[in-house]
Amino acid sequence: MPGTAVADPGLDGAARRRFSVVVLGDVRIEVRATLPDVRFTEVSADRLAYAPARAVVGGTAVNMARWAVRYFRRVSVLGRIGDDGFTPVVRRELRRIGARDLLRAEPGAANGVTVMLRDRDRAPDGGPGARLLVAQSDAPDRRISPADIRDAARAIRRADALCCDGYASLAATSRTALRTAMETARAAGTPVLFDLVPHDVDERLPLADALAPLPLADVLVSEVSTLARLLGLPVPATAADVRAMVPALDALVPGRPLWLLRFGPSSLESVLAHRRGELTVDYPSGYRKGEERAGFGDRLTSAELYWWLARRAAGRERRVGARTR
């Protein structure tokens, strides 16, 4: 759609890489598998399944960085990791993808592990199967501290954007670090993008803790179903229903953040972009049946952040030009 990130810069990267971003989040070893012949609901006893499987360096920060490097001139990854045999693998992967390493290694700690299983597509519509995500509960990322953030404050202050997500809200120490990072960015004039995850955050945190990061963000990404549950509203079924949520969003967060709301049958097909007094537009995300789901959200978010930063920079240039004429 013209005038949106899906059209320009597009979903495959930017023709001209601009801006620098710091991505704060989880860094883990991820084991991923898709079970083409198994439905979780059918498993009632031990089963051996041969299926496509792989181990990758992942976590929210690395997964975002893999796409961000296709758009931004500099991408830095900030997080806390372990100190074991996987540590050089993690650092080597950041070098491979072209991201700057701002990781803090915790002496004596093992790196965190996540297992992601997806079962057979739903019949008869062939929709995506269910996802089972098993995340290690005591991983180092849950202990990233305000001191870790202060050590990286210079990079945050000099960046064009800080990207962070709600998984840091799930533990007390990382929740404080998240707030420190967002406040550091705001004080320096660095825009903040916040992804409201996990999608069942309403079941994991008190409402106040789930909503606390929102006023510190300039760009807010969320599935509409997540926001609807947090606000006590019916889950929207149509684009018109999503648009009807706009007054509630404006009341929820002061100022004029850009909301990027995902919706559709699998919460990926469409986006409502809204900024009070500036725009309210919905558009196809580019996600189609058969598209690889893993990473698509990060791909879309990278394109949208680039689009927003470019619009923001162009607006500043126009204002400067008007003053000098």
Automatic annotation (TrEMBL):
The keyword Chloroplast does not apply. Keywords: Kinase, Transferase. Pfam families: PfkB. The keyword Metal-binding does not apply. Gene3D superfamilies: 3.40.1190.20. This is Carbohydrate kinase PfkB domain-containing protein. PANTHER family: PFKB DOMAIN PROTEIN, SUGAR KINASE.
